[in-house]
Amino acid sequence: MLVAAAVCPCPPLLVPEVAAGAAPELDAARAACTDALGVLAAARPDRLVVVGPADEPGPESYPQGTPGTFRGFGVDLDVRLGADHDLETEGTGRGLPYGLAVGAWLLARSGWADAPVEGVGVGEALPAERCAAVGRDIAARPGRLALLVLGDASACRTLKAPGYLDERAAPFDAEVARALGAADSAALAALDVTLARELKASGRAPWQVLAGAAGDAALAGTLLYEDAPYGVGYIAAAWS
User: Which helix (H) or strand (E) holds 7?
Assistant: First the structure.
């Protein structure tokens, strides 16, 4: 049963070492992520599942202790998913996708030790119906479930954005922010997969996993942050 969810953006720039001199520009986003994680801790879950974007459709599972790194961004910084090192990850050669690595960093930054952690990666090619099924499967396991859901909105909000300016981006992001702030699972489930891909919204699949996990649960949502400082939509919200 899903008892709480935190929704956070996952640009590597959230990590101050990666952002370097630009780090203060995302202080408000980091603070919102911290607040969202506080909601998860207050819910006293039995387990936490971190859902984030991946290169392959997935779903791909990442046990507690799976390593991640930001060395590809020129920073000597490694992370692990959760507090403990799971020996099963030794020798697999598979580390966390960048989005889940940001999630691992957020958890370490908050000192998360409230429940065991596992990761699930889902990619833009995973259909909406399959995302919902993944969410239902996660929620069907025994115990009180919390989700940390990672992903960015459109990358087309300005001329200098990674995807250049697309007039459809702002309305898309506004609807996503509304749905996440209102814990509107039906609206998230109905997001246009093709439009999300064209707008380079990496959060679409993770958000639809959240929608499937929530089902008919009577959760309330709070929008904690919504902005596009680099032409990319960043949204943070909490459900409880």
Answer: strand 2-8
Helix axes 204-214 and 128-140, enclosed angle (nearest 10): 50
- Distances from the Cα of 234 to the Cαs of 10, 15, 84, 193, 226, in angstroms? 8, 14, 29, 18, 6
User: CA 219 to CA 207: how far, in whole Å?
Assistant: 15
Query: Residue 203: which of 140, 147, 159 has the closest Cα?
Result: 147
Strand-strand pairing, 234-239 and 2-8? antiparallel
Q: What's the pTM value of the predicted model, to 2 decimals?
A: 0.93
For residue 119, what pLDDT is reported? Answer: 97
Between vectors from CA 138 to CA 237 and to CA 209, what angle results, nearest 5°?
A: 45
Q: Are 211 and 189 in contact (CB under 8 A)?
A: yes
What backbone torsions phi and psi does residue 150 show, to the nearest 5 degrees? -115, 140
| Token duo for residue 119 | 């990761």
Find, among 224, 226, 217, the residue nearest to 238 by Cα: 224
Instruction: Give residues with Cβ within 8 angstroms of 171, minimum separation 6.
Output: none
Cα separation of 39 and 201, whole Å? 25
**232: DSSP letter:** S
Average pLDDT per block of 10 residues along the chain, 240 residues long: 97 91 88 96 96 94 95 92 59 80 96 93 96 97 96 96 94 98 97 97 98 92 96 97
Are the C-beta atoms of 45 and 118 separated by less than 8 Å?
Answer: no
Check if the beta carbon of residue 224 is closer than 8 Å to that of residue 237.
yes
- How many beta carbons lie within 10 A of that of residue 11, not counting itself? 21
SS3 percent helix, strand, coil of the chain, rounded to 5, is: 40, 20, 40
